[in-house]
Amino acid sequence: MSQTAITAPDALAGRVDRMIQIGRLGAARPLIAALRKLGLAAPRIALLEAKIALREERIGDALISLDGAIAIADVDPDLRKCRAEARLKNDDPAGAAGDAAEAVIINRDDPGAKALLGVTLIELQRYNEARACLAEAVATDPRHPFYRIGLAEALSRLGRLKEAEAVLDRAVEIHPVRADLRGKAMLLRMRQRNFQAVIRLAADAKANGAADACVFGLMGHAYSSSGQHELAAEAYREALKLCPEDSYVRHLVAAAGAMPGAERAPPDYLRAVFDGYAERFEPHLITLLYRVPGLIGKIIDAELKTHPRSAPPLLDLGCGTGLVGATCADPRLGRMTGIDISASMLAQARQKAIYDELIEADLPAFLDGETRRWPLVTAGDVFCYFGDLTMILKRLQPRMTPDGLLAFSVEELLPDSDGVILGNSGHALGRLGRYAHSAQHVRDAAAAACFAIEELRHEDLRRESDTPVQGMIVTLRVQSGA
After folding, report:
1. pLDDT at 425
2. Which of 68, 134, 204, 233 could be joined to 151 by an S-S link, Cβ 3.0–4.6 Å?
3. What is the overall mean pLDDT for the chain?
4. CATH 1.25.40.10 in the chain, residues?
């Protein structure tokens, strides 16, 4: 390469841009200083500095650089696209859409600008418009993987799942060794409970040398969800080999130890999982639009109104960090007791100053050793760690007063894409070591433990992979004379 080509500002700026894209930020910085001396226009310098800031998650710095540059060169599409990305990271999809739209207006032939506009429109839930933008981007550059990922997401949000599958499958054909594309195609099938398709895609990824930790993890989910727990454990172990420091993958391997035949998740497993999860528990659930505490809180509020008692005590089973307790806390209540197996979760709950008493114990052992009785009991996302609910309900019933009320959540046992209900049709161990239950099993277990069902309501409990997790919110009453 000639000396002129090396020192030409535009050529050097292009080289710096490529270095930033591949993460060589330390090497890029001194070259940006050289570009200043060579007289590269200030907006171009600002663009490069903003891209470095975005790679380092310094979003505020990136926005400051871009705002100043756009004030000087407001018709530069690259500046607009970069600021759209920064605004998306800054939770400003409306602002991002405005910048992306400006980039499209400036250069109507730029598929990147159209794709970026499509992604921002997905964030704004304008799915039809998003699909149109991303379809144009794919038509212009059919080989671009991220355009196809965006189009598949827009189609999925519109419920056009077969079209979304076709878009991703074509991306896999074009880029057979890209594990991220296979992971997206697998995740789309997981959302539809098409577990056999996920397993086939994972096997194909292994054959093509395109299986990463995510692919093996999804393979494990599919095996677990279809009742093949030994194969699930093997897949999770393969994921751990590829990503040994990932706490989530370690969680999957541990969960695979809760094999069918055991009627509950092992106490040591639960303690280890939730001790390690305590600090990020609440922020994570917020991102999943977790609804269980609010739904249970409404039941307790209604009970206090329709069955007034003098300061009734409340027992919160598996209280965790106190999310359910916070929604139930009320001056009309008496003493609130929380029990959890995880000391770290209890430490988080203690900071809320909601409970009068917090007890570290395994739930069955606690119930077997107690003599007190409670008129109000809650259990948010606790019974998902027990298989046959009859056992735990029979232990709980003697610890409740006559006419006492129990409010709890369970995940619902649903058929897979072929209409097959796994397990024993009453309960089955699924992904992440959690049990799902059928409505009939809940009814049978309640009757066996001398509870009457006041309400069994089908609800979306939270979201995973932007798909609702279906479950039940159940209200039981201790039967008179029990």
Report:
1. 63
2. 134
3. 87
4. 181-257
Q: What is the dihedral sign for C-alpha 270, 276, 281, 284? A: negative
pLDDT-wise least confident of 12-21, 184-193, 323-332, 418-427: 418-427
CATH 3.40.50.150 in the chain is located at 273-478
Here the tokens at position 381 are 């996302």
Convert the chain into a string of H (helix), E (strand) and C (coil).
CCHHHHHCHHHHHHHHHHHHHCCCHHHHHHHHHHHHHCCCCHHHHHHHHHHHHHHCCCHHHHHHHHHHHHHHCCCCHHHHHHHHHHHHHCCCHHHHHHHHHHHHHHCCCCHHHHHHHHHHHHHCCCHHHHHHHHHHHHHHCCCCHHHHHHHHHHHHHCCCHHHHHHHHHHHHHHCCCCHHHHHHHHHHHHHCCCHHHHHHHHHHHHHCCCCCHHHHHHHHHHHHHCCCHHHHHHHHHHHHHHCCCCHHHHHHHHHCCCCECECECCHHHHHHHHHHHHHHHHHHHHHCCCCHHHHHHHHHHHHHHHCCCCCCCEEEECCCCCHHHHHHCCCCCCCEEEEECCHHHHHHHHHHCCCCEEEECCHHHHHHHCCCCEEEEEECCCHHHECCHHHHHHHHHHHEEEEEEEEEEEEECCCCCCCCCCCCCCEEECHHHCEEECHHHHHHHHHHCCEEEEEEEEEEEEEECCEEEEEEEEEEEECCCC
Contact call for residues 268 and 342 (beta carbons, < 8 A): no
Considering the four listed CATH numbers 1.20.1260.10, 3.90.550.10, 3.40.50.1980, 3.40.50.150, the one that applies to the domain covering 273-478 is: 3.40.50.150
CB of 407 within 8 A of CB of 475? yes
For residues 389-412, give the mean pLDDT: 95
Question: Which CATH code of 1.25.40.10, 1.10.357.20, 3.40.50.300, 3.40.630.10 fits the domain covering 181-257?
Answer: 1.25.40.10
Q: What is the pLDDT of residues 241-285, one digit of tens each?
A: 887 776 556 656 665 655 445 577 667 767 766 766 667 666 766
